[in-house]
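Need tokens for this chain, all 131 residues.
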Amino acid sequence: MTNLRELAEADLAITLEDSVNGFGLPGILIDPQTGVKAHTADEIFGQIIYDTSGVDSETGAPIIVHRAVFVVRRSSLLRVPQPGELWVVHMPTIPSRTAPKETFVCDNPREDGGSIGFIRLYCTRTKQATP
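Here are the structure tokens for all 131 residues:
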């Protein structure tokens, strides 16, 4: 490694992707441009945060929002999600790597951690239409 940013990005293989000893949970991320996986491995591992903080639109008070955030290492993707794109991810709905996966639509990709190599995808579970 030649600099601190490269070292921090390499550490994400442990802090985000390690599914045995760390927080890594499996997902399959679909690129909206190609309709196929956005990563070379069968699954991509990342950290899934199932609730995020938000602000109540009426009172301005801080609240917990039940919306998953899938955090992945940028270098594990074939291409970086762009603002305005709707990506699809199949991921577990509970923090277990063996749990069944459900389909989520992800929007508003943010590289808040772009300087150290991670991207946040804000995901909403899709719902089946009832006849």
